[in-house]
Write a structure and sequence with these properties.
143 residues, alpha+beta, HIT family, subunit A, five-stranded antiparallel sheet, 3 helices, globular
């Protein structure tokens, strides 16, 4: 998709409405219309980048540098019992809008939102984990 058709780019450019929480030269944050929980906020880079794989380090740095401040503002405002950070990266992981975005999802007692991963500890030995770590590390050193 051309970024000119991107709904998040249109929000940044003021072509579509949003409930803005924060904005500076690099980042725009606004309330997610779904409000999975009260205060559910999306934080996006102003520079269009499709997903985490496509994101230059400097854009990621600017984006992630703002998240603690925004999360703390949500915490002070609504006193959640915790916060989840979520990124759906690519269609197979549930990404619907192809402009990188981080969900800040405040958690409340009995909020009905489930974000608990399955535990597969019994399926992997320390040797298996060390082999996987070696494979990933090799890819990092090759690039």
């Amino acid at each position: 998709m051309d970024h000119q058709d991107c709904i998040f780019c249109k929000i940044i450019n003021g072509e579509m409405p949003s409930a803005k929480v924060y904005e500076d030269e690099h980042v725009y944050a606004f309330l997610d219309i779904s409000q999975v929980t009260k205060g559910h906020t999306l934080v996006i880079p102003k520079k269009h980048t499709k997903d985490l794989y496509d994101t230059p380090p400097e854009v990621a740095g600017e984006l992630f540098a703002r998240i603690p401040r925004i999360a703390n503002a949500i915490k002070e405002t609504y006193q959640p019992v915790g916060i989840n950070l979520l990124n759906n990266n690519e269609k197979g992981a549930g990404q619907v809008i192809f402009h990188l975005h981080i969900h800040i999802i405040p958690r409340y007692e009995d909020d009905g939102f489930s974000f608990k991963g399955e535990n597969h500890t019994d399926e992997y030995s320390l040797e298996n984990l060390q082999q996987m770590a070696k494979e990933i590390s090799k890819e990092l050193s090759d690039n």
